[in-house]
Structure formats: structure tokens, C-alpha cells
Design a protein that fits this description.
Blueprint lengths: L1 E3 L3 H11 L9 E3 L3 H8 L9 E3 L11 E4 L3 H13 L3 E4 L8 H14 L3 E2 L8 H9 L3 E10 L8 H5 L11 E7 H7 L5 H9 L7 E6 L6 E9 L2 E9 L1 E2 L2 E5 H14 L8
Parallel strand pairs: 1-2, 1-4, 2-3, 4-5, 5-6, 7-9
Antiparallel strand pairs: 7-10, 8-9, 10-11, 12-13
This protein binds NADPH dihydro-nicotinamide-adenine-dinucleotide phosphate (NDP) and oxaloacetate ion.
Length: 271
């Protein structure tokens, strides 16, 4: 496998290769920041380390899967070339698929090349049930309410463009309501989970998203509600943010690791 992105999630994923949690080789790694590439190499014993490359197109040769843990721009750059080079892809920055042209191109390329695009559950719970409910054909509503401390939302394009200053907040405030498509574009580094939920359920246009900034909340909280002919589903995850990136929940990295681990497992539990 190869890794695109050596930040918070990429480092945790690399550690899981280094300590054998994922029973496969991490062959090559890429990040635009050479120091971050080197710090991932340093996670490994000499002789076992992946090769750091400074051109992402060098990730593909002889590799069966590329893990993207970088950002939405990276999904745009790496997904189609990976699939065309015979690699499956695991996308953390799934919100990039809100762009319907890219989404269609990715799906068409994967079908043509016989490759697989994996989107892990990430920082949310309940995709197993939402997927099964969607299969019944009468899943009617799916909504996600995400509450983060202002530090976990800072710098989002929507806040900057609308001149919303979160430092002035003294209580929980809804800062965004819209579809998952709109949320992914407005908060590209904060709400990739909405795209995973949409793809499991009723699609990004029909999935509704509310984002709450709460100065008294220290966790990244994701609450899902889904209703339909099968009944209703509600899940809440109160995630501990990663120490190196408050936007990113620690569980998101572990979810990707579990996905990669079970690709090689003989018993695979869950939908
Ligand atoms: N699906 C889910 O549940 C979740 C998804 N995420 C998403 O996962 C991704 C990774 O998160 P995280 O590890 O916390 O992020 P970090 O910012 O900690 O790390 C990302 C790394 O990738 C680099 N990078 C970003 N874009 C590119 C690019 N186009 N080309 C080369 N390098 C690039 C960054 O460099 P630089 O520092 O220069 O920007 C940085 O080193 C993000 O998109 C995040 O939004 C996060 C949490 C949950
Ligand atoms: O980690 C989280 O809580 C969710 C997140 O940032 C994302 O989906 O982009």
C-alpha cells in the first residue's frame, strides 16, 4: 500500500503498519511537506521504512491500494490516477466527492478499471444500519448534527466568507444548516463524515447537515438521525479530538486503520 498525506491521520495509519496492526507493507509515502514525510519514516525500524517520494505519481507502481489522508484537493489529484494505475483507493477526505463531476468520474473510472473506492466510517457511527436501511428503498430522512469547539472549525471557508467570528461566541450556536453537498464545500476540513453518511444513505443532496460551534464543548460530537419504513436510527459519537489537529477526531484515524486491517482478515464483522 501507499500513503498520500503524512499529517495527523497519516501518521497514525503509518504507525499501525509499523507495529503490525495492519498486516501489510507500507511501500511508499507522499506529502507536500518533506519534514512530515521524514517523521513518518522515523516511525519505522531501519529496513522496514516506506520510501518517501516527492512526486505523488510515484506512489502507484506495484501497489494495490493508496490511502488518501491529506485533503479535498488531494482527492482531486490522486483518486483517478490511482484507479487508472491499478490501485484501489481509501479516501478520508470524502467530502471532495460532493463535486458531482468528480464523483461521477471516480465511479466511472473505478468501474472501468475494476478497482474499488473505500470510504471508511471515520468519526461517525451507524453507517452499517443506514446502509441496510437504504437498501430497503424506504429510508426517508437522514440528518447529521455536528458540534465542535470553535477551535475545530476555525478557518473554514464558509466562516471566512461570511465573516463569522467564532471567538466572540459565549454559548452553543448553529453556524451552518444545509445539504451534505453544501456542507462539504463550506467546511472542507471539518465535515467529511457527512459525505460518508450520504453515500451510505440517501445521497448528498437529501442529507441534511447542521454545524454547531460550542465554546463549552471539548469533544467533536456527531449525532445522526435517520427515519424510514424500517423504523428510526439515532447515533451519537462524542469524539476526543486528535492532539495534533483539533478538527480531526482520533476515532477517524482508528476507523481507517480498522478498515485496512480487516481487508486482510479472515473474519470481518459488521455490515
Ligand atoms: N472521514 C472522516 O471521518 C475524517 C476525515 N478527515 C479528513 O482527513 C484528511 C486528513 O486529516 P488530518 O490528517 O487530520 O490532516 P492534517 O492537516 O493533519 O494532515 C494532512 C497532511 O496532508 C498534506 N496535504 C494536504 N493536501 C495536500 C495535497 N494536495 N498534496 C500534498 N499534501 C497535502 C498536509 O500538508 P500541509 O500541512 O502543508 O497542509 C498535511 O501534511 C483531511 O482532509 C480531513 O478533513 C478528518 C477527520 C475525519
Ligand atoms: O473528525 C471529525 O470529527 C470529523 C471531521 O473532521 C471530518 O469529517 O472531516
Amino acid at each position: 500500500m501507499s500513503l498520500f498525506g503524512c499529517g495527523t491521520i497519516g501518521t497514525e495509519v503509518a504507525r499501525a503498519f509499523a507495529d503490525g496492526t495492519i498486516n501489510a507493507d507500507l511501500v511508499r509515502i507522499y506529502d507536500r511537506n518533506a519534514e512530515k514525510r521524514q517523521s513518518v519514516v522515523d516511525e519505522f525500524r531501519a529496513g522496514d521504512a516506506p520510501e518517501p517520494v516527492d512526486d505523488f505519481t510515484d506512489l502507484f507502481d506495484g501497489v494495490d491500494l493508496v490511502v488518501e489522508a491529506a485533503g479535498q484537493s488531494a482527492v482531486d489529484e490522486v483518486t483517478v490516477p490511482s484507479l487508472e494505475s491499478g490501485c484501489d483507493v481509501l479516501l478520508l477526505s470524502a467530502g471532495a466527492l460532493a463535486a458531482s463531476e468528480l464523483r461521477q468520474q471516480v465511479v466511472r473510472t473505478a468501474e472501468r478499471e475494476g478497482q474499488v473506492v473505500h470510504v471508511p466510517s471515520g468519526a461517525i457511527a451507524g453507517l452499517d444500519a443506514v446502509k441496510a436501511a437504504a437498501l430497503t428503498g424506504d429510508l426517508e430522512t437522514v440528518s447529521l448534527t455536528t458540534t465542535k469547539n470553535p477551535a475545530g472549525l476555525e478557518g473554514a471557508p464558509y466562516l471566512v466568507e461570511n465573516d463569522i467570528d467564532l471567538s466572540a461566541l459565549d454559548s452553543a450556536t448553529t453556524v451552518f444548516e444545509g445539504s451534505a453537498t453544501e456542507a462539504a464545500l463550506a467546511f472542507p476540513s471539518n465535515i467529511n463524515v457527512a459525505m460518508a453518511l450520504s453515500l451510505a444513505g440517501i445521497g448528498p443532496g437529501g442529507t441534511t447537515v447542521r454545524i454547531v460551534a460550542d465554546p463549552d464543548e471539548s469533544n467533536n460530537v456527531h449525532h445522526i438521525e435517520a427515519t424510514g419504513g424500517m423504523g428510526s436510527i439515532e447515533t451519537t459519537v462524542r469524539n476526543v479530538p486528535s492532539p495534533t489537529n483539533p478538527k480531526t477526531s482520533y476515532l477517524a484515524a482508528v476507523s481507517a486503520i480498522e478498515k485496512l486491517r480487516t481487508m486482510g482478515a479472515t473474519v470481518r464483522v459488521g455490515t
